[in-house]
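Exam prep: given the inputs below (a chain plus magnesium ion), describe the expected output before reading on.
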Amino acid sequence: MKELILVKYGEMALKGLNKKTFEDMLIKNIKRRLKPLGHFQLTSAQSTTYIRPLDEDTDLDEVADRVGKIFGIATYCRACVCEKDFDDICSKSYEYLDEVLSCAKTFKVNAKRSDKAFPMKSPEICMELGGKLLERFPHLTVDVKNPEVTITVEIRDENAFVHAENIKGAGGLPIGSSGKAMLLLSGGIDSPVAGYMMAKRGVHIAAIHYVSPPYTSDRAQLKVEQLCQKLTDYCGGIAFYCVPFTELQEAIKDHCPEEFFTIIMRRLMMEIAQRIAEKDNCLALITGESVGQVASQTMAAMVCTDAACRIPVFRPCVGMDKTEIIEIARKIDTFETSILPYEDCCTVFTPRHPKVRPQLADIEKAQNSFDFEPLIQKAVENTEMKTFNYSE
Ligand code: ATP
Ligand code: MG
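Solution:
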């Protein structure tokens, strides 16, 4: 029996004239994502894309799993391909729906007919197929209002398709449809989640990470690279920038008041991030900050950090509780990696009593007492880039 995957768009179906651009982008993303799994034919009609495997031995479970992580897809389902012939539809349905209908008590049939030349109209298809399924599975009853299972028959140009429930897709907008932004990616729980959330809005992500050897270890960097690789499942290809940050941190420690260490460090991180963002055509920065989570994430601290930024800073976790962030981290499979206990550069030289309500003027004065510019330039020059792609 031949099977394919039907993909329905979400929000992007509403985008009017832009719809075609969004659709093309989504199809390109699907193709790229499925490439390692074999050959497929993709066709689109009525806000639906049909993914037909062309090889004999395609692993459709794996295809469905990957489709479920592609942004821009509202729902998807596996469907059985039938001849446009009522008898063929019935006989294939018996076999294809056997498992789901054997477990259900109530069902209904829903029909969509875009090929008006098909001899039966939609209500007739529902009635007739419903009757046949009742004969075949006598334990079932029809419930049109609140059925356990809805069976859908679609009569399209070339074939008819039969499927059961739609599965909820990743939602959002296709990656790339909203431009690119630079994610400040630490080894923690929050920033991978922040990257995922912006990618869901169609933002193509690049990532930047700061290391301070010998205070931070190679393993800490490897952990972040592992997070980057995991994010590609949802975010697609990621350019990963690794910034040598030791000299800047030592300069802060030697020249600034201890209570301002963290804020000044964050401002310097932002400065470097936006210079690299500019070179890589990123329009904004993204962090995993959440109001009040730690001393450097009070609103007053964010005012001081933002004052060092010339481009917008997106903080999609800003209003979330840790438990909510963890829930997403588990879903996108970054949690277990994030909790590996390696030092991040943020925990090097942490002040004993950080300023919870810093004043911008005080921070600027402290920062201006030393010329960080040469060290900033050096860090930018010595930044190394690696690319992470969809896992094969
Ligand atoms: P996370 O769980 O994302 O590490 P956090 O709650 O530990 O966040 P902080 O350590 O204060 O918070 O960092 C706040 C944000 O700053 C992070 O979410 C991340 O975006 C950025 N950041 C922190 N450390 C680094 C780093 N070493 N490299 C890149 N970005 C960093
Ligand atoms: Mg952290």
